[in-house]
Amino acid sequence: MTRALPTHDAPTTRARSALLTLLALVTFAMVAACAPPADGTEDSASGAEVSSEGDLAAEDGSAMEGSGSRVALSPTAEGELPSAITGDGGELQGRDLGYLEGDDATTGYLAVPAGEGPFPALVIIHEWNGLTDRVRQVADDFAAEGYVTLAADLFQGQVGQNSDENRALMAEAEGNVVPNLNAAVRYLKGRDDVTGRVGAMGWCYGGGVALSFGLDGENHDATAIFYGRLVEDPEALAGMDHEVYGTFARLDSGPAPESVERFEAALEAAGVENDLHIYDDVDHGFWLRVDGDPEVRSGPALDAWQRLKAYLDRALGG
Question: Measuring CA to CA, how many Å separate 22 from each of 17, 183, 193?
């Protein structure tokens, strides 16, 4: 059912309390769900060349990319998945970006489409181990689709190598997540080649963070969640002023399908438009790593990708 999106007042005390505890819950709830891929592999922090322009972006956001750091517009064809998630992502085409004032360690990754624009923009949020090359390659793929894409760095350039390190990084970042993402959105909105419409999306830990940011962060226009910690309180969700996209897995336990169903019911009760889907026969992490089991994951991943492209077009005008 399609409904007009409501205009919401400021969150009540109860709702704000729920928001303030969400990030803490995200930190500890992802431990089992965000385990390394079944094949034992994890993405490296920097396995490919990145253009080394990590200086803080100009205050007005008018970063100047040379022709060598822009991504050719090349949207996926019907039936085609983005190369990063199939393990076929190539050499990185974007550049490092310091976007958080007063924090030299925080280094995001910026991928900009070729052409004058203006383009809609995305902030993408990494998993529990930090900003890896797989996520950077996804940023390149979104730039090829026509989005100025900033892969945020919530862990100050650090990448965990095991569960204990990942937990420590999440705990250390907890109080700084929303200010970090606020700075990312402000940077993108300040660029001359951005339309002013910005979305946020993430996977696992980053999916829960994207939802929290949609409720309590800088004003933006889209929230896309791939698994991750959910909110099941309609009062808390009433603060969401745009449609929510979500992709989940039937064999997942973080979140379990029952939790997704309660989340959907809460969104409906809050009057928040949504496009959620639980895919059968796949587990946590299936979309970002189709190459882990391409025979099983390719079909659901393609459907999720086609839904995502349509959603971003609706929400951001891509």
Answer: 9, 20, 33
The kind and range of the H/E element at 135 are helix 133-145
The domain limits of the chain are 45-316
d(CA 297, CA 281): 8
Residue 115 has a CB neighbour count (10 Å cut-off) of 12
Which backbone phi and psi does 194 adopt, to 5 degrees?
A: -115, 140
DSSP state of 34: T
**Whole-number Å distance between alpha carbons of 19 and 137:** 31
In the block, residue with structure tokens 């007042």: 9
Quick: pLDDT tens for 167-225. 999 999 988 999 999 999 999 999 999 999 999 999 999 999 999 999 999 899 999 99
pTM: 0.84
Does the domain at residues 45-316 carry the CATH identifier 3.30.365.10?
no
Coil/strand/helix, residue 281: coil
Query: What per-residue string of b and e applies to 243-272 under the rule 16 or more CB within 10 Å gives b?
Result: bbbbbbbeebebbbeebbebbbebbeebeb
Q: Which residues contact 13 (CB under 8 A, 6 or more apart)?
A: none
Distance CA 210, CA 126 (A): 10
Q: Dig out the tokens for 213 from the structure.
A: 């940011």
Beta bridge partners of 95: 51, 110
pLDDT tens profile 144-157:
999 999 999 999 99
